[in-house]
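re: that chain from earlier
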Amino acid sequence: MGPDTGVGARDGNARHRTGLAGVALLAVLGVGLAACGGADARPPSVTVTDSTWQPVEGPSAWTAYGADVGGTRYAAVAQIDRSNVASLTEAWRFSTGDVSHDDGSEGDPSGCGSCHTGDIKFEATPILRDGRLLVSTPLNRVIALDPERGTELWRFDPHLDTDLERNEGFVSRGVAYWKDEQAVGTCAARVLFGTVDARLFALDAATGQPCRDFGEAGVVRLDTGVGEVQIGQYGVTSPPVVVGDLVVTGSAIGDNRRVDMERGVVRAFDVRTGALRWSFDPIPRKPGDAGWEAWTPEAAAKTGAANAWAPMSADEERGLVFVPTGSAAPDYYGGERPGDNRYANSVVALDAATGAVRWHFQVVHHDLWDFDVAAQPTLVDLDIDGRSVPAVVVATKIGFLFVLDRETGEPLHPVEERPVPQAAVAGEAPWPTQPFPVVPAPLHPFGLTPDDAWGPTPDDRAACRDLVAELRWDGLFTPPSEQGTLVYPGFAGGVNWGGASVRPDGLLVVNHMRLPMWVRLMERSAPGRGNQLGTPWHMERGMVTGPSGLPCSPPPWGLLTAVDLGSGDVRWEVPLGQVPALAGVPGSETWGSLNIGGPMMTSGGLVFIAATMDPVLRAFDQDTGRLLWSAELPTGAHATPMTYEVAGRQYVVVAAGGHASLGSPMGDWLVAFALP
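^ sequence. v structure.
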């Protein structure tokens, strides 16, 4: 997510390299360079394809990005269940137009100037509101579809200026929706979304036309009031959250460029007028700001980021917004930001009406490893010691699951502050302890010894043993070093932005990865060169891979796990997906796959998930983890599926956009499945 963050070993040490799988993972997370150029910005436009269509009335099972504003990714629809899922078949397929399917140019970006194919990442989950299926594309086009037939009703195109150097490429994970139940006519119902070039739009849900009374002719600029903005490095990739008459949005900021990066301000706007109602900066800037006592005045004045790039969630009844924050800038050296860096790497509960901090829980103190809170906080009511407790679950890149009281932020299961390694480069002062949940147990093993190193051949294993032996490892949270530090769990997860799905009875299902990473700090050779500017240290990082390009950690590399949140017990765990290049290799079907995307559950007893390098949508039994059904997709689907029922028929829909650096052909498909 940041420019020139060091994909590979640039000090000439080819042994610590990022191989095929490593490059794929870094690119899917937005670490590699991605430059677009050539297109001129144009005014937004709307195309109405079917003005005669009338919605089929009925309730929707998927009203927000995570199914609901609580991010449960659970739908109470059960026409498709364990007994009949094997009969599921493709119902319709829709191409958004972001990628060409013409002979000879398959996979090329369409309408994106000179974009590289790898810049387009279709990671969106549609929502269904008032009978319309609403989806956003990587180029921030918003399209309304007939949910029965998959035909286009209207589309809005903001005409991005694609002459941007965007490290994480062009990404939009979804939209939000608001409706004034007392009003009729234009913009009584609104589609709200942010763009990669830092605009917040409000559209008429019926026609796609901008709501002229919102901001300036339907748009609010977000790249003001956040410090100095580097073009292309500040925008929005996750959907906002709507609470009452407010739309709340965070930001995506390119990592590791400098200390004084853009500020990670979270802002709430009036959904009718676009007027700013409140803002919250995770880094306090002046005396009296929440958390000021935990920062030095110098660090508070200049430190950037700590932004909420992942989806937020909300408890409308309690008037709370749950904000997942990332690291303060930069990720791998904190000498310029001493202390625990209060509110960074946290879930922060804000008063929805005022933006005031009600409570916070920090999952990593003084982050030095890029351990952002990447997953949307997930709300569920749990039975704890015979009483129902409103809870929020925070899944982390480390593979920890923190289960917190939604009203107070207090852990509902024991959490221990444990001493962690302290030896660090000159100028660094790691925080002496870190929080470890006792229950549930971690999803990810800690550390990798030379004897643990894995490879598909004896030569691979020998090379991996040498690579691991060269890296420093004093335990989890070993600080970055000049020698090179093993980071395992790695900065990719554990759990990334795909998040978790939770059933009303407290069963949580989550996909996660086990991939070894490394990070190295080097004294800066020249002022103003490299990354982490404003510090004495340049950074390089990558995945620990052998000559084959495969991870040096033992498989499985991708898993799907079910956890009882009440007891903390793991109910089941299975490998998830397969690396296509390894198909046919004995045993590879149990090795799992790199996975980016998330799961969803239904009241039909099923877990649906794609996310893997192989282009497959799968359905598992919620209670056993047994694979019940799978279907090949036109390309890989690195998005979370959703479901709904309309006109008496249940559909399961997923965005299949592929990913160039995962070896998956580019695409722009929405694919729907239903029973015959």
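Residues 458-470 form the longest helix (13 residues).
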